[in-house]
Here is the input.
Amino acid sequence: MARFHMEIVREGADGSAPSAGATSLRDAAAARWPVPDIAA
Here is the structure.
């Protein structure tokens, strides 16, 4: 889970716009693990 979170953070850390891929991964994770969205 920590690695997943770091990948999401890195997605926008370089100044690029959040990608649809990152959003899809986050949505998939939210569906799989019903926990608060720590990446928001």
